[in-house]
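#random but structural
TW: two for the price of one
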Amino acid sequence: MTGALDGLRVLDLSRLLPGPFCSLLLADMGAEVIKIEDPQGGDYIRWIPPYIEGRGSQFMALNRNKKSCKLNLKRPRGVELFLKLVETADIVLESFRPGVLDRLGAGYEDARARNPRIIYCAITGYGQDGPYRDRAGHDLNYIGYAGVLGLTGEPDRPPVIPGVQVGDIGAALMGAVGILAAVAAREKTGRGQFVDAAMMDAAISMLPLVAAMVAGGEPAPSRGRSMLNGGQPVYGVYETQDAKFVTLGAIEPKFWKKFCALVQRPDLEVLHFDTGKGGDRLRVELTALFKTRTRAQWMDLLEEKDVCVGPVLDLDEAMKDPHALARGMIVEVDTR
């Protein structure tokens, strides 16, 4: 099947999660992705268990649908071979710290000298400039600086580490968007450009609502105290009778009114947005209410009733969810 990016060639020098996820998106849209690895060990995620047929399953998930080769960019011959590939490519993607590839003779200016149409995307922790640009880091560090981690968790408790890599995935998406914008711009100008995607930037970009609240004169929201991070009982997670959990997101009055009717608690309707003692009472009432039925029973009662209620699935359950399967989000691939 022809994809939207059919005919574009990507040289992917990146490792671990952000860059490979970015190039995976491009590959899934039809681009030819050539993964270029160091012959001394390659992408570190290759060696992280568990393994499928001797290969790291995480590596396989991020690097399916790609071609592969080895080049030693610390040697002149390797750099020259890389630049030869650049002459035939549309996009270079890398995730080294700023300046590393420049020192090796394989940076953006070197690539552009060989191919003025090249689009060169660097995904880094802190970006190509600024006081933090040369610092080491991982996702947890980036979301800590961005303010995302400080908003995550319960009031008066330590921040909670998210279950997924927010900055890493965000930067991969920003990188893909930047690359696609550069491809579109090249159609008009005939020239490539440099795309600077940073994980800290990506995390900050996820704060438009809370930043707007502060800009509008409200106090900075704190952990577990604003409407969308646990501060409102009508938008929260509740334990069920069988020690599982459900999500309730009845923010709009129409959803809340219908929820109260379905659970036969019309007396709770007036407490919808109460932020005082009424809100405290509502949280206690909802906590007790959801423990009167199992998760499955709550889903039978509410899931199809348009009240913004859903289950909290563990990963095994999520991989078997009928909607995810119907949407083609979970597929089997041949690993041979």
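TW: number two ↓
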Amino acid sequence: MKNITNIQKFSIHDGDGIRTTVFFKGCPLKCVWCHNPETQRFEREMELDREKCTGCGACAAACPNGAIHVEDHKPVWNSLSCTFCGKCADVCPASAREIVGYEYTVKELVKELMKDQMFYEQSGGGVTFSGGEVMSVDMDFVLAAAKELDRQGISLTIDTCGYAPYERFQKILPYVDTFLYDVKIMDPELHKKYIGVDNKLILENLVRLSQDGARIYIRIPTIKEVNGNEQNMKETIAFLQEHDIHPAQINLLPYHDTGSGKYRKLDMEYKGTDLHAPDKEEMEALAAIFINAGYTNTKIGG
């Protein structure tokens, strides 16, 4: 069984056509601007919206394991005692509690994904495995699901940061139509500062995927203070040219902070408060750098 935070249907931003995107739980990176903090940890969690919580104590009374107690009209949660039965969320009159991460078997997941087969076929869409980082979770689970989708004739896209042993990519490559591959920052020290690791493995895997014939969309989350500049984009182009990588598309993804509220619910600190997206003119200028270098398939967003 695998923890999944969300199955998003009718998505048009995670690959071709109409898609269902599966968000797996767990990621090895620590991107400062991450807008899905609920997918960072591999284990299940409990969200609490303290702005909604009234401190009534209904959750504590309903918990069969004593995992919640109330102090000063505020609930305190003990994750070690919690079995994620969901009773606290069920009784909350303010809908302030929510379990993050639901367990699926391969059979259950594929059954859910097949419900929209008609829309995939009509639109040239399919399924996207995202996260978190799908290439860092249980590979036996991911591979089994990929094989079954392939058997059913469903197109599969993998949304990845590239930070995983290449053997994992080799195993799943025969069942994947497209990789949405993040190339965040070219400078390795800057990469480590904002993401927690350098980019050596990520870039090596990109080269090997290209050499193995994978269809790749390069995606660059673009932050004004970090990588939204001419130097980073030209260094990206130089790397692609040096290694003869020909992406099917390049997507510049403007930064947004819509996930900042999720951090509060998980008692996590959001460290991207001083970050901003380049404005429309700046984004167009960055895209023009790629287009003028011959990458006419460059788009803002995607």
